Amino acid sequence: PHLGLFEPCCTVGEAVAPGAVVARIDVLGRKTDVVASDGGRVVSLGFAANDLVEFGECLIEMTAA
């Protein structure tokens, strides 16, 4: 695993549907989508855009729909 750059695709307070792309992680120029497994509302972003993130970190906190 490598460190990756965090790219949020949602904002705090936004309603998110199941399967929506909520962020992208850029590892060595290859971007991977992070999708919401359930619907809900974004409570907080764990990182700012372009922060380095590691495997297993909490990226986005959401409430249940």
Tell me what you see in this structure.
The model has no long low-confidence stretch (mean pLDDT 95). It is elongated, with a radius of gyration of 11 Å. The strands form two sheets. A four-stranded antiparallel sheet has the order 4-3-1-6, with no helix packed on it. With 65 residues, the protein is an all-beta fold. The protein is 0% helix and 51% strand.
Please summarize what this structure is.
With 65 residues, the chain is mainly β. Helix content is 0%, strand content 51%.
Summarize model confidence as the mean pLDDT.
95
What is the first-to-last residue Cα distance? 32 Å
Percentage beta strand: over 45%
Radius of gyration: 11 Å
Which geometry do the CA atoms define? elongated
**Major sheet characteristics:** 4 strands, antiparallel
Total count of strands = 7
Which series of helices and strands comes N to C? Answer: EEEEEEE
- Tell me the strand order in the biggest sheet: 4-3-1-6
Q: Catalogue the unreliable spans.
A: none
Percent of residues in helices: under 10%
Q: By helix and strand content, what is the structural category?
A: mainly beta
Secondary structure tally, helices: 0
Describe the structure using short key phrases.
65 residues, mainly beta, four-stranded antiparallel β-sheet, three-stranded antiparallel β-sheet, 7 strands, 51% strand
